[in-house]
Amino acid sequence: MSENNFVSPQAVKRLKKRRGVEFRFRLWGQAAVGFALAALVWLLVSIVGTGHSAFSQHFMTLDFELSETTLDPTGARDAEKLRGANYRRIVQQTLYAQFPEVTERKAKQEVFALVSASGATNQLRQMVYQDPSLIGQTVRVTVPTSDQVDQLFKGYIKRETAEDRRKVSDRQIAWADTLKERGVIRKKFNKILFTNPDSRDPELAGIASAILGSVMILVVAFVLAFPIGVGSAIYLDEFAPKNKFTDFIELNINNLAAVPSIVFGLLGLAVFLNFMGMPRSIPLVGGMVLALRVFPTITIATRSALQSVSPSIVDGALSLGASHTQAVFKQKLPLAGPGILTGSIIGMAQALGETAPLLMIGMVAFVTEVPTSIAEPATALPVQIFLWSDSAERAWAERTSAAIIVLLVVLITMNGFAIWLRNRLEKRR
Amino acid sequence: MTDTNAKFSCRNVKVHYGDFEALHGIDIDIPDRGVTAFIGPSGCGKSTFLRTFNRMNDTIDGCRVSGKILMDGNDIYNKNLDPVLLRARVGMVFQKPNPFPKSIYDNIAFGPRIHGLTSSKAELDALVEKSLRRAGLWDEVKDRLKLSGTGLSGGQQQRLVIARAIAVSPEVILMDEPASALDPIATAKLEALIEELKERYCIIIVTHSMAQAARVSDKTAFFYMGDLVEYDATEKIFTNPSNNRTQDYITGRTG
Do B85 and A318 lie within an 8 Å CB cutoff? Predict the structure, then answer.
């Protein structure tokens, strides 16, 4: 038998070794994929676990007597006076009426602390301001409880903790339980989270301003980055002369894509704010900064999409007498379209998650109004998350996670849309 | 001297890719109407030479063409001549069928549209039908003009590409190994089509198949290492070549 015989003992040994290598590599690959999946699951479970409870909140439904003697003793119905009237007194009286047996001043304060003081007073003030004829009537209004009561019922403030170590006293727990039994306190969907801007009170804080700010920033960034990114890619790939200078430009666009995003924030701070004197913290500047961040990504995606189009298509168009421009725009670009769109959407998804450059241009400001234009102060989702994560009270933790959930849902939707779009456009060919 | 009946007259045509000289000065006259075949081993420069006739070499970086190529007596490398106009007169079919990933109709209509050859939808429809008929494809695709051209078989795709070229009314059709990706039946159909087309067009075909050159062409040029070795009537080349290297190649001794 020759040495090359495939059944010789040496050959069998070699084969075993080869199989062994393959087996170990498979194992390694499966472990790596398993680790990645485990990390993803852990992330989702921990965030959804803490965040899901923020989507509901406890509210009190009470009958408030809008007494004329408290709100408008003169009866003048003067709009400015009505704005400044003592709604706090009305809220207090309504709550005290629930527990007539409580007379001591300290205890009364604790009763009042069950409701979201600024939430309830603001709500009444708005109602009366819009419809002064309500004065003298009794209205049934649903107002948020204070965040401590909410946290108590959600189980984040533990009843078994010693009284002096929790923010809710034993008396308050008893009263809150009574109110719940009476049906005054109910758990409802937390609309406030989506309709309100930021607030100092967790029970009144929402991400409306952040979502709108993020949308505006993305729109501005897309409108600027898409034409610049796609245009520079088409020019560099199809029309620019190939020489040292264009090589240099190419290299620098690739470098730009790798520049840490905070550097773009510094650039925006120096150029847009300090040099051009634009206001801080507005979505316009945020979008301009993120456009700088995103356009190299779009350029790179567009170039790779263009390069993946078979040159034979362009040859075909040229051989029919199409000019170079016609061949590129009528044949090559439509074929590269899905790749360009996917790259752009993924670039925009990156921009949505970008925090550092926005901090540099002052978008970290505490904004309590929902912006109505791109030139008004706003905040952005990731910045809002950053702000809330820094706050001390327990109620902020679940809201931080809830905001992260919203951000992740938007990101997954955008990426999913990109994949769907690509599949759809590719199928059409 | 220059043959007055020639479609193309080439004098001392050299092609360089950077520092590499791919063609060493070709002199040839190609007649109008009829099929001229370019044969020779791989890398001999026949495809390069073919691409000088519609200036497709212009699109390759570092490619330079020198010498003179006259088409109907006019220099096609004249600086004032736009290659776009030349390519409308000199169509091309490539080795690999390259229909656009669009509908069959849009494949044919692309050329007429960019040149503005038709003024109405009806005219364009008629031109599409005429082109497909001439390419012998109409009966096979008339019911699915809206379907993608890439869904056709290889042979149909190649005839679609020919129809696409015909639609802009060229005078010349260059074919670069058009049958190399086709099966024998599709090849036979293609050759029958070439036979028909040569009544109207000047056809220049590059082929690796000696049998194909013998079947379809009227004149054959044998290229070797960037030189034109022999150029004569096809019958003479295949039965009684005057050059030993031609003899060796067609009998399969070199390749």
Answer: no
Range of the domain at B212: 6-250
pLDDT digits (tens, 9 = 90+) for A73-132: 888 888 888 888 889 999 999 999 999 998 899 999 999 999 999 999 999 999 988 888
Interface predicted TM-score (ipTM) of this complex, two decimals: 0.89
For A222-241, what is each residue's pLDDT tens digit?
Answer: 999 999 999 999 999 988 88
Determine, for residues A313 and B92 on separate chains, whether the beta-carbon distance falls below 8 Å: no
Which domains are present in chain A? 59-185 (no CATH), 208-428 (1.10.3720.10)
Q: Which residue in B84, B92, B164 is closest to A323 by CB distance?
A: B84
**Residue A109, CB half-sphere, CA atoms under 13 Å: how many?**
3
Question: With the C-alpha atoms ordered B8, B13, B16, B21, is the resulting torsion angle positive or negative?
Answer: positive
Alpha-carbon distance A330 to nearest alpha carbon in chain B (angstroms) = 9
Quote the CA–CA distance of B126 and B105 in Å, as a whole number. 11
Asked if residue B217 belongs to a domain, the reply is yes
Point out the residue among A315, A316, A322 whose CB comes nearest to the CB of B114. A322
Hey, is the C-beta of A240 within 8 angstroms of any chain B C-beta?
A: no
Measure Cα distances from A353 to A156, A280, A298 in Å. Answer: 29, 20, 16
- Residue keyed to tokens 């030349």: B86
CB-nearest to A321 from B94, B96, B111 is: B111
Token representation of residue A112: 């009042």
How many structural domains is chain B composed of? 1
